[in-house]
Design a protein that fits this description.
single chain, alpha+beta, Peptidoglycan synthesis regulatory factor (PBP3), Domain 2, Beta-lactamase, 2 domains, 7-stranded mixed sheet, elongated
Length: 389
């Protein structure tokens, strides 16, 4: 039984169906990016690849590197690290560390995640830096970011303290959030902690600034940020059922506006999109002409089931197109990739689904090959422009 979407294109190369418009989210953020993690569907993108000051949201990169060092055994949670005069000199959000302290790595991690400690970042940075300096660690962060596909991120320090050239795009921040969730599930629960009281020395800085953690909407991370240049931003994630959404907003003008925007984005993401299986493995999608084969056509089928996140109001009304270069020369092997089904949900990126041959098509015999060649010559002759008399 064919999927309803494909019922009318089993024997056609193209399908065009009127689709309903998706309800785009009208964000007041300067830049925004929303990703459905399981399907990889980008639900919202606004100035997503523009490098901007990330403020404390860039602390996520320091955390990612630290998590990796702990897993590799280069750092341990119980290890105590010294605090340099440089680390102590940071202002803004801090753990109020001083040079007499030796601080457990686990406390530093919580100090960064919950308290947004600029000093805690510098302590970890100096411990992990190739040359022992925060600047050296920042250069390493930039190199590591490139390896993760974060091409619009450049780090000048470990914590997002305002500094010329310290930039990240919201798309890169979403990539980083996804990698933290997938690569370090053992550490991710730290991002849902709402309070951390370190040594009783900072009673005014004990609560997580993430406004979503107490709202019972599935939010469990990740990091807020604010500087005058960056405005108010948030890298967030929420899980409802088997769906997880990652979102990044930047450039808002107040903590209240950030909280309102973040909550609205989470609700919009879960309420306005549904997961649908749009094609099933082996179900016919189209037929393609075959050149010099024992059969004149080959059926194109999906190599596997394909599930996608679609606008709820348009989940059954999609635009699809089969693309292949034909006729396809025999012999053809079953499972050989021959084309692509392109689905275009309104307001979302194209979904490309590989199509393969459903069976072997051997080369035709001598008579078939001669007949095919003759047909080609006749068509070429009949298509040749006649000379003027």
């Amino acid at each position: 039984m064919h999927h309803p979407l494909l019922r009318s294109i089993a024997a056609a190369c193209c399908l065009f169906i009127v689709s309903l418009p998706a309800a785009a989210f009208d964000t007041s953020a300067k830049a925004a990016f929303v990703l459905d993690l399981k399907s990889g569907t980008v639900l919202l993108s606004k100035n997503a690849d523009e490098p901007l000051p990330p403020a404390s949201m860039s602390k996520l990169m320091t955390l990612y590197v630290a998590f990796g060092a702990i897993r590799d055994g280069r750092l341990s949670l119980d290890e105590k690290l010294p605090v340099s005069a440089h680390a102590m000199s940071y202002k803004g959000s801090t753990m109020f560390l001083d040079t007499t302290d030796r601080v457990r790595v686990e406390d530093l991690l919580r100090g960064i995640i919950v308290l947004s400690g600029n000093d805690a970042c510098a302590v970890l940075a100096e411990a992990l830096s190739p040359d022992g300096t925060e600047a050296g660690f920042a250069r390493f962060m930039t190199q590591r970011a490139r390896q993760l596909g974060m091409d619009n991120s450049t780090f000048m320090n470990s914590n997002g303290w305002p500094q010329a050239g310290h930039l990240m795009s919201v798309h890169d921040l979403a990539i980083l959030a996804g990698r933290i969730i997938s690569d370090f599930p053992e550490f991710y629960p730290l991002f849902a902690e709402t309070e951390f009281k370190f040594d009783g020395r900072a009673p005014q800085n004990t609560r997580n600034r993430n406004p979503l953690l107490r709202l019972s909407i599935g939010a469990d991370g990740l990091k807020t940020g604010h500087t005058q240049a960056a405005g108010y931003g948030l890298v967030g994630s929420a899980k409802q059922g088997n769906r997880r959404v990652i979102f990044v907003i930047s450039g808002l003008d107040s903590t209240d506006r950030r909280a309102e925007e973040a909550e609205a984005i989470v609700n919009w993401s879960f309420r306005n999109f549904v997961e649908k299986t749009i094609v099933r493995q082996g179900h016919p999608v189209a037929r393609a002409d075959v050149w010099m084969g024992r059969e004149p056509t080959v059926t194109l089928v999906p190599a596997q089931d394909k599930t996608a996140m679609l606008p709820a109001l348009a989940a059954n009304d999609l635009t699809g197109e089969v693309r292949y270069i034909g006729p396809i020369r025999a012999p053809i092997q079953k499972g050989q990739e021959l084309g692509t089904l392109v689905i275009t949900p309104e307001g979302l990126s194209e979904i490309e689904i590989p199509l393969v041959a459903d069976r072997d098509i051997p080369r035709g015999g001598f008579l078939i090959r001669v007949g095919t060649a003759a047909q080609y010559l006749v068509s070429q002759f009949s298509d040749k422009p006649q000379e003027a008399m």
